[in-house]
Amino acid sequence: MKKLLVYGRIIKDQDNTYVRQLFDSLKELSFEVYVVENYNQQLKRLLPESKFPSVSNHEEYAKENFDLVITMGGDGTILNAMTLIKNLSTPMLGINLGRLGFLANAEKSKIHQALLKVKNGNYDIEKRNMIGLKSDGNLFTSFPYALNDFTIHKRDNSAMILIHCFIDGALLNSYWADGIIVSTPTGSTGYSLSCGGPIITPNCGNFVIAPVAPHNLNARPVVVNDSSEIKFKVEGRAESFLVTLDSRNDFITDKNEITLRKSDFPACLIRLDNTSFFKTIHQKLMWGIDKRNV
Question: How far apart are the C-alpha atoms of 185 and 220, rounded to whole Å?
Answer without folding.
Answer: 17
